[in-house]
């Protein structure tokens, strides 16, 4: 929801330049992420990954879609190599209210760390 609000803010911005904002889910990808988890846990996860995870090439397709998608992916959730359909809640009046509230709360926290961050957008 924060990415959707960021995309909306960028569209409304009068600042020069344009950035495409997308939320990307490559899915469970078979990588070496479990290599330092200990012998048995690492073996267990490697078997799970082998059975149900995507290859790195398959997982990267959604990331490539985000990189090359342009306007059609702006503000969208990308999943399984395609633009996903937002849930009914996300597009509802309540969802939009929560989206804006999340944005305000995030900006307050970020502004405490990096004053003026909201002005960059």
Your description of this structure?
This protein has 121 residues and is mainly α. It has one domain (2-120). Helices cover 55% and strands 7% of the residues. It contains 6 helices and 3 strands, in the order αβααββααα. The protein has a 3-stranded mixed beta sheet, with helices on one face. A hairpin with a 2-residue loop joins strand 2 (77-79) and strand 3. Helix 1 crosses helix 5 (93-113). The longest helix is centred in the last third of the chain and has 21 residues, at 93-113. The chain is globular, with a radius of gyration of 18 Å. The two termini are 16 Å apart. The mean pLDDT is 91.
Structure summarized in a few sentences:
The chain is mainly α and 121 residues long. It is 55% helix and 7% strand.
What can be said about the biggest beta sheet? 3 strands, mixed
Low-confidence stretches: none
**Discrete helix count:** 6
**How do the strands of the widest beta sheet line up side by side?**
1-2-3
Q: How much of the polypeptide forms β-strand, as a percent range?
A: 5-15%
User: What number of domains?
Assistant: 1
Total number of β-strand segments? 3
Cα-based radius of gyration, to the nearest Å: 18 Å
Q: What would the principal axes of the Cα set say about the shape?
A: globular
Helicity, as a percent range = 55-70%
Order of helices and strands: HEHHEEHHH
InterPro entries: NAD(P)-bd_dom_sf (IPR036291)
């Amino acid at each position: 929801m924060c990415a959707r609000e960021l995309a909306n803010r960028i569209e409304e911005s009068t600042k020069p330049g344009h950035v495409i904002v997308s939320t990307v889910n490559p899915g469970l990808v078979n990588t070496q992420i479990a290599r330092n988890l200990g012998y048995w846990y690492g073996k267990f996860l490697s078997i799970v990954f082998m059975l149900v995870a995507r290859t790195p090439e398959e997982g990267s397709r959604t990331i490539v879609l985000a990189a090359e998608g342009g306007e059609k992916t702006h503000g969208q959730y990308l999943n399984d190599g395609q633009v996903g359909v937002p849930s009914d809640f996300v597009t509802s009046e309540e969802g939009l209210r929560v989206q804006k509230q999340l944005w305000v709360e995030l900006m307050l926290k970020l502004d405490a760390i990096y004053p003026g961050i909201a002005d960059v957008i």
